Amino acid sequence: MCCFTGTVTQVEKTRIFARRVDERTQSLAYAMNVEASGDLAMVLPLPTDLAAGDGAVRFVDLSQEPHLFATLDALFPVLEMEGSLTFDVEASRQAKPQTLAVHTVGDYEASFVPTASDFERLDARFRLSPAIIESLCARERFGFAVFQLRGFGAASTPPRPWWKRVFGADEAPAGATTRKTFHPMGLTFQSREPGMLFLPTVHVHDGTLSATARFDHVLYAQGAAEPSWETSESAPHPHTVARAGGILAEGALVRRLAVVGELPNRDVLVPA
Q1: Are 46 and 16 within 8 A, CB to CB?
Q2: Domain residue ranges in the chain
């Protein structure tokens, strides 16, 4: 799934797409439904090329293709998705500016944090705790794509009808949560995993990195993937490819795998 910098009540219907753009670059699209009581950020740890520094990630605006994953699903036969998942687990720093660049990408403000120590250059509200960063980077070093999610809590609650305002009925409870569906997040990054596709599925919720986690995912790829993945009947339409801003490849079939249940809390690597 993903890493959140605050408390979330529920995360569901996670969809992740990956493909190899070229020998050095991978594309990634990510969508989910989130329920939370306040603004927070979602952080995607990525196996970026450390030598690329702040330029390792390019954010892609997918606001013109909000139903990207429904469009991909339509390429497959109408059958119950099923499959199994096998996890494959396994630099010097350059001078940097004082603050990280902030990019407006559709409904998001996004930043790229090139190394764990660079979180100090990010707004404190959207940092991961040092303990979580240390746990995530225990086996390998990551860069981090940070997407600020806003519109939760009382500020996003629609006005109450006049009779409720006059008579004080049905006040919203303290700490009320809001469920939101965001358009997909998109990016390309310079990867240090040649010949592989990286799908970020590690869960960090409420500041906890557990050994296992509850998955409610569908994974998608344009590439070799694994034999257990379904293959689409057709390739994405050229108009969809154009609106996706380089995330999708024209003329290539799509692979898909549903991943549901209690599973090891790890990222996924599959052949590109």
Answers
A1: no
A2: 3-165+177-271
The DSSP-derived string for 163-214 is HHHHHT-SPPPTT--EEEEPPPEEEEEEBS-TTEEEE----BBTTB--SEEE
| CA pair distance 136, 138, nearest whole angstrom | 6
Specify the CATH number of the domain 3-165+177-271: 2.60.250
**pLDDT digits over 44-76, tens only?**
999 999 899 989 999 999 999 999 999 999 999
**How many angstroms separate the CA atoms of 191 and 193, rounded?**
5
pLDDT digits (tens, 9 = 90+) for 183-221: 999 999 999 988 999 999 988 766 677 888 888 899 999
Contact 153, 39 (CB under 8 A): yes
| φ/ψ (deg, to 5) at 94 | -95, 165
Answer positive or negative: Cα dihedral of 185, 143, 7, 218: positive
Closest CA to 11 of 108, 123, 152: 152
Query: Is residue 230 within 8 Å of residue 196, measured between CB atoms?
Result: no
Tell me if residue 248 falls in helix, strand or coil: coil
